[in-house]
Amino acid sequence: MTGLRHGTAEVGASPATAGKRYHGMDFIRAVMMMLGVVLHTALVFMPEGWLYLDPQSSPFAPLIAGLIHIFRMPVFFVMAGFFGAMLYQRRGIGAFSLHRFDRIVVPLVIGWFVLYPLLMWSISFAWTFSARDPGPGVMIEAFRSTPLSVDFAEAGPMHLWFLYYLVYYYLFFAGLTWLLHRIARPVVGASRRCVAALATGRLSWSRLPLLVVLTAPAMLCMSEPGIDTPFGFAPVWRILALYAVYFGVGWLVYAHREVVSRLEHLAWVRLVFACLLLGVAIILTAYHHHSTANREAGEAIPDHATLFTVIQLVQVTGVWLLVLALTGVCERVFRRPARPVRYLVDASYWIYLLHLPLTIFIPSLFRNWEIDGTLKMLLMMVLVTIPLLVTYHVFVRGTAIGSVLNGRRFPVWPFDGGRSDRSVPLE
Q1: Domain boundaries, the chain
Q2: Cβ atoms within 10 A of the Cβ of 335, count?
Q3: H or E element: which one contains 5?
Q4: Contact indicator for 105, 55 with CB cutoff of 8 Å
Q5: Distance between CA atoms of 41 and 122, rounded to whole angstroms?
Q6: How many other CB atoms are there within 10 angstroms of residue 108's CB atom?
Q7: For the whole prediction, is pTM greater than 0.90?
Q8: Phi and psi dihedrals of 395, rounded to 5?
């Protein structure tokens, strides 16, 4: 927990890393948010288990949803911790707190009161439309019959839970960093030396094993293979603790960010091994679900607990390898900003906030379109993304909403008058 900002200097930063822009890591963070569209649309085409299901299911939907669910939020929280520490160091705790309030708390509160009714209406419309026989005027009648009232009695955070958890992490890690620098500088110095040895020093070979050891206890507390999803506003401590490890590692690494460039070495090799491990995890998870069904049917399944432990350890090892690999690969590929990529990065926050109701509503409109389920699923992913990008460009990018989500208003083509589209600092 080092590298506290004093004035405008970045303490502990080398000339090569002071003020450096991490385009690759920002791209990773954005992709993890945009994968929410892919994940939640795929859930609609699962055989069972989601808020609304399309009649044409896809055999690939469980694979896509399961794979994304394994790595998406862990990778995101590592990136969030890294950029959170960057913001803290550059601005100090006061400006950091105000910035995070504007960018996290305000969208969380306002977004929830807007999105929860929209999600409930989308689900109600989908079920109303699906209950009617196909025919002319059925869709219009379903619109008219869908109630506008919303029951808040069993409301949960929806997909916005990640913002809710981010608030906890920002409060804890920023507060602890500020406190330690004032009352326990020897602890700060010792932690700096330990992290430096693990990040770039003689103990760097133990990076992956140590990360697995730190993460495994929380993974082994999950209720089923993988990572549980919080459905209520009360924190689920095993989930909060798990993601705190990912966020905390990102936060600590920023003070030793020279490791980022070193991860470019052998990055593609790590990526191959990460994909292999995640593939093994998917296969073992499928077998676990199959064996659970057999157990419920009365068959004896040996070493069920052992299988769960193996799955969790394989998953966490694969995820940490993926974090290391993606960081190295993306920092190598995105050394300079590319305007189309930067545009998607800027739009990703809006896309994640608004996507969930559309992943129910838009597929429900095409319920009676009888085509291959996999093709339909892919088309729905595109159709969900299009209005999100259009609304971002027209109603967000150059408006006050964009100031909250992106840090400033961007010039919006074709209304920009030829102004340049200069990017804001990655925070």
Answers
A1: 13-265+325-406
A2: 11
A3: strand 5-6
A4: no
A5: 13
A6: 19
A7: no
A8: -105, -10
Residue whose pair of structure tokens reads 């998917």 in the numeric block: 282
Rounded CA separation 225/284 (Å): 9
The SS3 call for residue 153 is coil
| Rounded Cα distance, 218 and 241, in Å | 7
248 forms beta bridges with none
Q: Are 52 and 370 in contact (CB under 8 A)?
A: no
d(CA 390, CA 385): 9
pLDDT in tens, 289-332: 877 766 655 555 556 788 899 999 999 999 999 999 999 999 99
pLDDT band at 2 (very low <50, low <70, confident <90, very high): very low
DSSP readout, 6-60? Answer: ETTEETT--TTTTT---HHHHHHHHHHHHHHHHHHHHHHTSSSSSSS--SS--TT
Per-residue tokens: 163: 């913002």
- The Cα–Cα gap between 39 and 64 comes to 7
Six-digit token string for 387? 């209005």
The pair of three-digit structure tokens given for residue 392, joined into one six-digit string:
């971002």
- Rounded to 5 degrees, φ, ψ at 9 are -85, 150
Total number of residues shown for the chain: 427
* Interval 22-38: pLDDT, tens: 889 999 999 999 999 99
**3-state DSSP call for residue 221?**
coil
- Dihedral angle, C-alpha 236, 239, 241, 246, nearest 10 °: -150
